[in-house]
Amino acid sequence: MTKKDSSIVLFHEKQVRRHWNEKKELWYFSIIDVIAILTDASIPRRYWSDLKSKLKNEGSEVYEKIVQLKMTASDGKQRETDSFSTEDLLRVIQSIPSPKAEPFKLWLAKVGYERIEETENPELAFDRAMETYLKKGYSKEWINQRIKSIEIRKELTDEWQGRGMKEGLEYAILTDEITKA
Q1: Could you tell me the pTM of the whole model?
Q2: Which residue ranges does the record assign to the Bro-N domain (predicted)?
């Protein structure tokens, strides 16, 4: 998938700046933009400064994961802003005491519960994948073919590992060629 280095996404008709890190294959989001949406703070930067201090004082590991990225500010200039990967952003949202953040917290709890259930019963993960593909509009035939191709690729990569091949560039190239075929 080709992704722009930086772009804007809309959430509740408000902008959230983001940046795609090609090397890590992760999106990074401006925490200031998210705070502006999820709180009633008149000055989101001040709110973030206070929350950041609180997280640091509590010894939160998420504080260490702040990434400073240049993003286009409202005045059109490139300015460094605190950013987080999706995973770390979701962790910060859990620390925001705001009614607007509550739906995210409930969703995170639901997803976490589902993943715990899937560790006890892996078939649930398969059912969830089927449901997701169907909601996206894929046909049952396409889904079955996709699952078969994943199974075949997994068998092949297991064979490569069994023969001593280590994951890396060659591994990625071979996997990519299989996917194209």
Answers
A1: 0.67
A2: 15-114
